[in-house]
Design goal:
Layout (H helix, E strand, L loop, with lengths): L1 H15 L6 H46 L2 H39 L4
Helix pairs in contact: 1-3, 2-3
């Protein structure tokens, strides 16, 4: 998904560089941009929920380690943290990418574009 987002934003940057973009072309870009924003927002929401679930699991495992001192809980905490870190990174990329798409939408929908 990260590659798709980068590829799409690069495509939008190329379209922004076209000096004589017609109104019909701008409207086509805006329509496609709204669809893509919807896709990326959905992906962002799903990853937010997954990230929150793993964060809650990590807190539960941390409390279990603190309360019981069991090595198995510590192992579970390490495994959950190994998954949580990439999920947080991926969510960060999606969040920033969607914010960038909002900026592109504002640019293409402005009268001076």
């Amino acid at each position: 998904m990260e590659k798709r987002l980068k590829r799409y934003t690069a495509d939008l940057a190329q379209k922004m560089a076209i000096p004589d973009l017609t109104e019909a072309q701008r409207q086509a870009v805006l329509a496609d941009l709204l669809v893509q924003i919807g896709f990326f927002q959905h992906e962002r929401l799903i990853h937010l929920l997954v990230t929150l679930a793993f964060a809650v699991l990590a807190l539960i495992a941390l409390l279990a380690v603190a309360i019981s001192g069991n090595v198995w809980y510590a192992g579970a905490l390490i495994l959950i943290a190994c998954l949580l870190i990439p999920y947080v990174r991926h969510y960060f990329v999606l969040e920033n990418g969607v914010q960038k798409l909002y900026e592109y939408y504002d640019w293409f929908s402005s009268p001076q574009a």
